[in-house]
Amino acid sequence: MIGILGALICGAAMAAEEPAKKFSNGADVQAALDALPEGGGEVVLPPGVITVMNPIVMNRDGEVLRGSGVATILRLANRMNAPVVILGTIKNKPTQTVANLRLADLSIDGNRENQKAEKWQIAGEGSEIRNNGVTVRGVRDCVVERVTAYSCRSGGLVAEKGVQRLTVDKFTSYGNEFDGLASYKTTDSSFSHIHCYDNPKGAGISLDLAFNGNAISDAVLTENDIGIFMRESCRNVMQGIVIRGSLHDGIFMAQATGPSAKGWGLIPGTECIDNLFSGLVSMDNGGAAFHVADLACTNNIVSGAKFLNNKKGGFAEAAPGLVRRFGMIEQ
How far is Cα 145 from Cα 152, in angstroms, rounded to an integer? Predict the structure, then answer.
């Protein structure tokens, strides 16, 4: 009996001491994802720096890539000019939707000082992908949580190409060449506990093309070029957002422009309509707290907001009354 018990204890100890799987580089991570069974599974990364030379692509349903916290760092190698992680397809025009992906508990270092280009491929598939920390494309019911992306050659996180029901929670992004977080052609998605700062050439959050019916809550956006940039964004709810120290406006809202038979002009159907901002704080910005540039951007509501110490004042509107406001404090 003692011998059997001793063997069990010894076996348990050996199992506990078995070293974790080693990931020498991004290729090892990709191989582990590709080895997951049909229907998905989880790859867990240990603490430490993992050098990435080609993007890590999660393109099969049910894949999970999880680190061990902020000490797990995916770092883009010098002169790779590539995105770091892609959720979904690399095809320029996605033909199928990938579902139930999860990226969590890690940091991404885009190493932008040692990259030369913003675009990944010059031509062919992948040529429409920028060199972001996280790129989410053509997916549904996916989660990005407890992820930090910094020093990326383009943006920290970009969702695009038909994203549905994406959840982004506890996401931090800073020191990128352009936007901290951007989302295009995205619906029914939730972004919460967002902290984007020190993105001086881009927005803390950029919503620019068919960003409709989403929710953003509990975001802090500081020291960016613009706090929130919006075009063609409708029926979104934004709650508890703090914007401070933007080089230009706290929020900039406009209609898209492009070529037409009469020359360059506003594009019908690209206005911002029916957005609700509750509990907004916009302060110490170099422009206006809330700038509406075009007459077609109507029926947007601001409730319970505080606009303090903005160089060009509180509201700047293309015409008075474009924004409906309730319970305002302006100084």
Answer: 18
